[in-house]
Specification:
2 copies of one chain form a homodimer. Chain A is mainly alpha-helical. Helices cover about 45% and strands about 10% of the residues of chain A. In chain A, strand 1 and strand 2 (about 65) form a beta hairpin. Chain A binds a DNA duplex through helix 3.
Chain lengths: ~160, ~160
DNA sequence: TAAAAATACTCCATAGGTATTTTAT
DNA sequence: ATAAAATACCTATGGAGTATTTTTA
């Protein structure tokens, strides 16, 4: 995975760009975005500088997309939709989260009883963060690789597991 | 096209998140990103706040992805790759740009001679911005819908056309 | 005790706002 | 003359850095 893929160009740039590309009018696009006109001019200019290409042909009469602008519009719409889907996915990932539940049990239950008890509720437990505490003494880490656990532990530490 | 799809969550957040998800160590991830550790902690916390979900399970011993974190990792990688491709596309859109060329001609040439002359060089002219000036008097707009032009104009104004 | 993440603070870059100027018809 | 974008300037937010504290094995 590349690290610094994007020196510039953020999602805001693209949102602003798409709004302007659709309105073809700085004032209206700014209003639609809930900002004033000057910052929009600046952000568009910044995006053009970042991409090294002119995106709009400005005239008093009208604002028109350049060839590069049309290309970016296609891509920007797709990318923004993609970003929107990521948000939705994450919203779903946290859906149903209602808080934390603390359970006390002997360590051996982690292998047998607990999965047996919670297993049937798999569908209602989307994201279960398990924090295992053995007594309150603080012990050493213990391997617990069976029963669907990646690892388990003792001594007030925790593991994550999707049941 | 939705306007404010992302109140928060920008590409930087995702880059930082991916780095940490792969390193599972704030210090190493920060080094890899070329920043120091505290801002990385803050940005991850900000992202978790923005998404309303815990992405990492922190312990002194190790940093581990939560279930939500694993989900986001898949999506974040895809989105960053997508963003990278957009950049590449735009880099291609401006490739070969070397400056501006001013041509003088009579208006009728726009329909006949100019396309005939420039047509063969289509491959070398990726993005041609045409600014048409009729004399220096300033005239009225004129329709010029043939010969592959979307529109043409007079009076020191301009149109864009990919030849 | 030591290693690692979080916190506190400071600084600077940047996004946004208002007012004004420039531009082109 | 006018409508619209650009520019100037100011403010505030937020990202990054250094130093320090907290945490837990």
């Amino acid at each position: 995975m590349p690290d610094a893929v994007l020196p510039d160009m953020n999602l805001r740039h693209l949102r602003y760009f798409v709004a302007l590309a659709e309105e073809l009018h700085f004032g209206r696009a700014a209003a639609r975005l809930g900002i004033s006109q000057p910052p929009l001019s600046e952000q568009i200019a910044a995006l053009e500088a970042a991409l090294g290409t002119r995106l709009f042909q400005r005239t008093r009469r009208e604002v028109a997309l350049t060839s590069s602008g049309r290309t970016l519009y296609e891509e920007a719409v797709k990318l923004l939709l993609h970003a929107g889907r990521v948000r939705e996915v994450m919203a779903g990932a946290r859906a149903g989260y209602a808080g934390q539940l603390y359970l006390g049990c002997v360590p051996s239950s982690l292998l047998g009883a607990l999965p047996a008890i919670l297993g049937p509720h798999r569908g209602r437990i989307g994201n279960l963060e398990v924090r295992v505490t053995e007594g309150h003494t603080g012990g050493s880490w213990r391997r617990c690789a069976t029963a669907g656990w990646t690892r388990a532990s003792s001594g007030s530490t925790s593991r994550t597991r999707r049941w």
